[in-house]
Design goal:
alpha+beta, 23 helices, 651 residues, 8-stranded mixed sheet, 41% helix, 22 strands, elongated
Amino acid sequence: MANNIKVLKPEVFNKISAGEVVETPAGALKELVENSIDAGATRIAIDVKGGGIDLISVSDNGCGIREEDVSLAFYKHATSKLTTSDELSAIETLGFRGEALSSISAVSKVKLTTRYVDTDAGISATIENGTVVGKQYVSANVGTKIEVRDLFYNMPARKKFLKSMRYESMSITKYVARLILTNPTLEVIYTLDGETVYQSNGAGLKEAIFAIYGSNCVENCISVDYNKGYYKIYGYIGAPEYAKANRNYQTLSVNGRLVEDTNVSAAIFQAYKPYLMTRKYPFFVLNIDMPCDMVDVNVHPKKTEVRFSDLKSVCGAFFRAVEGNLTMYKEARLNERIGVDVTRPTAQEVSEQFKIREQNSIKLGNLFDKFDFEVMNPDQTADVKEIEQATEAIDKEAEFLRFAEQMNSELSVEKMRKKMGFADDETQAVSQKRAKVQSQQQTAEQQIESMLPPLAKEDNVGEDLYSRTRILGAAFKTYLILEIDDKIILVDQHAAHERILFDRYLLAPRSMQPLMFPYVFHVKEDESIFIDENIDLIKQAGVEVEQFGPNTYRIKAVDTMLSGARMSEFVQYLLGSVDEFKIDDKSLRVEKIAQKACKAAVKAGYCLNEYEIKYILKEVFERGVMQCPHGRPVSIVYTKRQIEKAFKRIV
């Protein structure tokens, strides 16, 4: 039989709601800081100890709290930021629910010190379980200081599920970094366990980026200043060559509110797509100012999720803002390379050039209006063929052709040798020497392959298939053309050889090889925690890493199969898993072996001899190779019937 329905007591429902508003110490800090900003603070001091469990202290120079409002501030749904439901449609403050202080005080011990702007004395209050248990007058500056101690002391189950102290500290540090980036005119001092981590003087966004990421980041930033219609987008994006291994370097805000939106991130990623390599992500710090009634911030208690009344339009604005500046940057770099303009443009110059393009309403400015934008997640692959075609149309094709012609006429080996007075027979001797070197390289590769373990083969299946194969030739020195029974098969020589080498490398005996010169690298705090948490898995993947100082590590030994891999690329790939906080040692090793196989395999455009063709085909048939390690198909099959239908011989 069901129990009778009862109204929960305040101490019960406050703890329940606290679980939504205050899941972690970082969540508690966020709520306190947003209250300070809403109070008009221009300076905030943050002090954290013990991962935020022992202490979270936020001190500001805002307007303070009136004496009669001190007790009311800790009541559920008590707020000074809105009074009617109509105001929910145009919220301009960061906080508005009236849940933060009551939720925090329900699960911690809170001390409040405040002085209202037009009073002579301050008030100090002690709050436990959401109730003010002591209050007295004190001397204090105008503003408010809140100290939160023993977070979740009365909720052992919630405290049990918190991560390590270092991880919680890292989460708080990441939030403070984004706080500084989204509030660049706010002076912030952040101290963790007695040491100053960040100190921003509120001098603007460039100074804020410098405070968080350093001078190298500032030097690789492109200014964005886009103003069209309802939207004003401004901030900085990273140059394509400054791409990162994960999305931790992306900060987005709406009307100054730090938010997370996968669709907007996808739009920005699509603008970068022609410039980025696989597993690379753009750097950006962008804010959009827009009418408050066009964005709903009342979606989740954390207030990090928002909904746009016209999502497609917002995504389009971000795409145009980023794509336009990237195009201007790319053209400037191209001019620099071909000698049109040897001066690299500043971020401000790129931004001004883009403004001119917008004013003239040229093709770039209307690019996104001409093509439909598909809302997507960042990891989804979109069909952006039309967008890419439009982007290519903007390229300076004529200048590139002139540059290519100049290269062909001036840098041709034969012509340069004639200019220098060498005879034709000497040119022939050079060609023979080059052929000899290539032959030696091929012999060396064959010797290396002979030392690798043989691949397991299916009995007679490959031999039978190979015996029925007629080699017709090779297209574009890349695709082997075969006839087997009633089929024509195209085999990608690079993909096939890559998979053959990959399978052999995987079966090779494992042993660690010390590096003559250990590779030393420096990481951020969150990346340092990630490496420490996964250091054993990294070693199982074939790379031995050890700490070499604060947030500094060195690779001192690697698996023999990874000895040829670039350690800088390995580190970038490794840090790409920071978001998940755990790595798969098998996939990490497989990825690096795949890269090694890719580099060692014959390349597209290389003309294979008869022996090499037979070797690759036998291995493909006997192993039943279907895909390269990266998932690309090794072969494409056309049946006789398909070909005859194409020629209308049959219907």
